């Protein structure tokens, strides 16, 4: 039996994933968490084989949790599920120690297959991610400026470019507005941009948000 913990801040999303996994006779959900704090508390008393983890959590992000587990030497295998397209976060998540990456907009069956795959200690990637990995190996290394951003800086970039105000971002990420302003300033400096308008244009041109 594959024991799974779900971590997503949206209860409806967790329910949907839980119901999908419930149809698999070899998988059982042993716990759920809505943010990083709940996840850490849950994992202290509940063991699991696979952690199904969302990237966009309030407070510390899913990528933060991924890095923390890796630093601790945790044996839990992490499957990232996200609303973000593969080309935004998949490679970054896999490099950070994730065993797989699944888009929430994909077929429900995909999550079942992904959980089974990572539980066996194998990487799960979609054909789109596999193609990206092949291209990254065969194409000349041309690093885009946003690849130099930290996980939190990239998250801030995408949220600003999606039209969210700094106050809304601060509330959603459970950070102070001042901290979000610092992330924004770092993004503008690293990308050599002057304001939010230029930031949004950059994000659209590089496929980080829809036009």
Largest sheet, if any? Answer: 5 strands, parallel
Low-confidence stretches: none
First-to-last CA distance: 44 Å
Structural class: alpha/beta
Overall radius of gyration: 17 Å
Oligomer: single chain
Coarse morphology = globular
Q: Helical residue percent?
A: 40-55%
Average of the residue pLDDT scores: 87
- What's the level 1 CATH class of the largest domain? Alpha Beta
The share of residues in extended strands comes to 5-15%
**Order of adjacent strands in the largest pleated sheet:** 2-1-3-4-5
Q: What pattern of helices and strands is seen along the backbone? A: EHEHEHEHEHHHHHH
CATH level-4 homologous superfamily of the largest domain = Response regulator
Count of β-strands: 5
According to CATH, what is the topology of the largest domain? Rossmann fold
Write the layout of secondary structure elements.
Layout: E1 2-7, H1 11-22, E2 27-33, H2 36-45, E3 50-54, H3 62-72, E4 77-82, H4 86-95, E5 100-103, H5 108-119, H6 127-138, H7 151-161, H8 166-173, H9 177-191, H10 196-205
Parallel strand pairs: 1-2, 1-3, 3-4, 4-5
Helix pairs in contact: 4-6, 7-9, 7-10, 8-9
Keywords:
Arc Repressor Mutant, subunit A; five-stranded parallel β-sheet; Rossmann fold
Structure description:
Residues 3-119 form the Response regulatory domain. The chain has 10 helices and 5 strands; from the N terminus they run βαβαβαβαβαααααα. By secondary structure, it is an alpha/beta fold. The chain has 2 domains: 2-138, Response regulator (Rossmann fold); 145-205, Winged helix-like DNA-binding domain superfamily/Winged helix DNA-binding domain (Arc Repressor Mutant, subunit A). A 5-stranded parallel beta sheet has the order 2-1-3-4-5, sandwiched between helices. Helix 8 (166-173) crosses helix 9 (177-191). The longest helix has 15 residues, at 177-191.
């Amino acid at each position: 039996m594959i024991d799974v913990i779900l971590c997503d801040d949206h209860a409806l999303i967790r329910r949907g994933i839980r119901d999908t996994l419930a149809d698999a006779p070899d998988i059982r959900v042993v716990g759920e968490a809505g943010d990083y704090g709940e996840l850490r508390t849950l994992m202290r008393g509940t063991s699991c084989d696979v952690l199904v983890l969302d990237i966009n959590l309030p407070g510390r992000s899913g990528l933060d949790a991924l890095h923390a587990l890796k630093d601790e030497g945790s044996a839990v295998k992490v499957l990232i599920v996200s609303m973000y397209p593969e080309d935004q976060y998949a490679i970054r998540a896999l490099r950070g120690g994730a065993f797989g990456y699944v888009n929430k907009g994909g077929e429900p069956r995909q999550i079942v297959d992904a959980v089974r795959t990572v539980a066996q200690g194998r990487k799960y990637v979609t054909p789109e991610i596999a193609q990206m990995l092949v291209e990254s190996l065969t194409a000349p290394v041309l690093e885009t400026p946003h690849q130099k951003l930290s996980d939190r800086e990239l998250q801030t970039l995408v949220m600003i470019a999606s039209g969210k105000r700094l106050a809304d971002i601060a509330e959603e990420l459970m950070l102070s507005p001042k901290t979000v302003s610092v992330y924004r300033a770092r993004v503008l400096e690293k990308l050599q941009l002057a304001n939010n308008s230029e930031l949004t244009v950059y994000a659209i041109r590089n496929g980080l948000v829809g036009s």
